[in-house]
Amino acid sequence: MSMENPLLTPIPFPARFSPPAKKILYTLLYVVPFYLSSSTRPTVNLSRDAPSVIRARIRAVTFSCLITSLSTFLLLTRRGRGGYHDLDFDYPKALHLLGYWPVSPLDVLKTLLLTAMLFTGPLFEKGLVEGQWRAWVRLQGIQQCLGGWIGWRNYIAGPTTEELVFRSCLIPLHVLSHQSPRQIVFMTPLYFGIAHVHHLYEYKLTHPHTPFLPALARSLFQFGYTSVFGFYAAFVFLRTASLPAVILAHGFCNWCGLPRFWGRVAVVVVEPGEPMGPPVGGRNGMGQDGGWVGRSGGRRDGSGVGWTVAYYFLLVLGAVGFWRSLWVLTESERRLVDF
After folding, report:
1. For residue 13, what are the contacts with CB-CB under 8 A and spacing of at least 6?
2. What burial class does residue 285 get, using C-beta atoms within 10 Å of its C-beta: 0-12 exposed, 13-18 middle, 19+ buried?
3. Most buried one in 64, 184, 289, 332, CB count within 10 A?
4. Is residue 11 helix, strand or coil?
């Protein structure tokens, strides 16, 4: 690893404040408050998606983020006896390590473009096949996404607080402790994935009749894809030192969801005068007569073979474009390390 910036000269941390210890402490500080109060703790009759639980959890995790961010900032700027470096680490340099400053709009836009490439297929399905592009042009999607507390949690509070803790607070400690970029990219996100394992308990609590093995498989799958996103976010953060970039990429991925990897893409037929909006059908998107209702409103027509071929072609094309552009679109003079 080459670290040409003198600000990034690796400095060993004292054993009592080693990065692994901080990772465990920060992870616990993020998750444990969810279960300390009856207002944040789900029950058999109170889902984690209840507005009261979401509001209480946002308050709790905001407080946790303030503690972790302030403690990391103090660690980076502490001087004298018991300090962690002998460099002249002023506040702007510490803010740079945390990804706060300077902010580069270009790095943010390049990161969003790179992330969108990976979701070329799903964007095609949502925008053209399901006809949501009309709502996008009118900015109606923002109102739909943020019209309830679940949207605020999934697209605003979740991405912001998770990136603050698991990227902004943890990665700088590893950068300054002799760890290689590859170690940082592939090791730090595992704690990000572990922070989601507690959903197994919550899922079993609200779905008591679901067998344990399927619930465990669901939790392990969630651990897997959250860790994969963590690899990407850690890579982007190291390459751009931009906290806004990884927060927006995180929110965008939450909005897109997991891409479709099998099955036929269905065309959504919108009846004349029918508003474009969220599903209005019954459970699991089923209409009253059993027909599928699209996410954009309207009825799904299962005959879209051409759309299906186009979707999977664009899915592969987007993945190839993402891989080829990964280094180019994350190149930044504000990077924390050189790979």
Report:
1. 19, 84, 173, 176, 177
2. middle
3. 184
4. coil
* Other C-beta atoms lying within 10 Å of the C-beta of residue 249: 25
Helix (H/G/I), strand (E/B), else coil: 300: strand
Tokens representing residue 277 in the block: 């909006």
Provide the 3-class DSSP secondary structure of residue 65.
helix
Assigned token pair, 183:
């170690």
Round to whole Å and give the CA distance between 316 and 234. 24
Tokens of 291: 């027909």
Q: Is 338 helix (H, G, I), strand (E, B) or coil?
A: strand
Percent of the chain with pLDDT over 70: 80
Out of 85, 96, 125, 162, which one is annotated catalytic?
162
Dist. CA 335–CA 113, nearest whole Å: 18
Rg over CA atoms, the chain: 22
Does 125 participate in catalysis according to the annotation?
Answer: no
**Is 162 a catalytic site residue?**
yes
For residue range 304-336, what is the model confidence (pLDDT) as tens digits?
788 999 999 999 999 999 999 999 999 999 999
212-240 and 199-206 helices cross at what angle (nearest 10)? 140
pTM over 0.85: no
